[in-house]
Amino acid sequence: MYHLRKVSALGPALLFLTALAGCMKGKTETSPNPEPIPATASRASQPGGEPKKPPVDLTKAKPDFTLTAEQFYADVRREPQKYQGKLIELSGLIACFATVVENQELTWWGIALGRNTTGGGVFATVYFPRAGPPPWTRVCPGQTVKVRGTHRSGNRIEDAPHLEDAVLVEAGPSPAVVISAEQLAKEYGQDMERTTRRYALKPLLIEGDIIDTRGYIVLKGDGKIHVACSGFGAGGMPKEPLKVGQRVTVLVLSWNGFRGGPDRAGEAEECYVVEVIKRKG
After folding, report:
1. pTM for this structure?
2. Beta strands 162-171 and 122-128: pairing type?
């Protein structure tokens, strides 16, 4: 089962993630310089059953080809064998996260590079090793990145070429708005419409204390108004169940202020837990 829905085969491959999205715009708030996601083998063997060579540090390896994601999308169709098994460096905009679920297990996670975050088309999908950190702990849709990975034929998603065992080399400024659950709830309680307009169509990086895990993950807000995370993307929840009293940072790709109420500051969907914060002492 793939968490991708094919929309069209014309122009750039229009692929959208049903368990995630992140296709939205927002102003730049932070400029992280991420540590590279380590490149380690994510399969026991290559197609054909041949054992893989020991993994190398792709951040220091010289790529065979350096292109934009759009250039790669166009050229790989003209000369597919040209890139077979080659180390490719791609640069482009993250349209959304990409995940693959097989037999109810998350087997691949990565990013889709595309024209924009609002459905303009996907040029390439880039998968990182599952042994490394999830991509949402490093980057966000709407962010420009540079990645390296190996292209192989027999892609799972035929409309968009992909790279495997990739590594994140560089990341530009993040469009995510950093805000606490307390501040979001306070602003929402003061002026719901203004707050909704302010944060609509923007990814939010929300930090807060968990006060309820029954159904929704609810973060403590201001007074009686709290922030509820009602839907999580594939892989967006940590393996260990979240508990009341923990403090977390959550990347929210879809926040709708009009779905709120007297005790809830809107509704947060397409959520990804970025960090469970360790308390001092």
Report:
1. 0.79
2. parallel
